[in-house]
Amino acid sequence: MQNSFRISVRVYWEDTDAGGVVYYANYLNFMERCRSEWLRHLGVDQQRLRLERGLQFAVANVRVDFLGPAFLNDEITVTAELERLGGATINFKQAIWRAEAKLIDAGVRVACLDSGTLKPRAIPNEMFTEWRHG
Length: 134
Fold this sequence. Notes:
Elements: E1 4-10, H1 26-41, H2 46-53, E2 55-66, E3 75-85, E4 89-98, E5 101-114, H3 125-132
Antiparallel strand pairs: 1-3, 2-5, 3-4, 4-5
């Protein structure tokens, strides 16, 4: 299984505050995009997962250390590394970099939920198999 994934993101006006610095909540958006693109890369269609299997993912916990700012027009790299696949959760280690400077160090726990009840539900075993061979 591919243990890590990365995407490049350009910082636009909409990502920044009045001073041209990325607004803190937008780092969460960048990290979400990276995890979603990783799942897409592994062949997991989240829309089909919800419609056909009644499953969806939701963030259950986030820890973020802000180490430095990103600015308007920066090209940043967002990474996601699989830390743990559990019965109903996936733990990711995430970071955001500008060149060699680490701007964000984060941990994200994502829960698998029943789409109808929004209660935790085990991730299907065959999904682990698919991801391990992704």
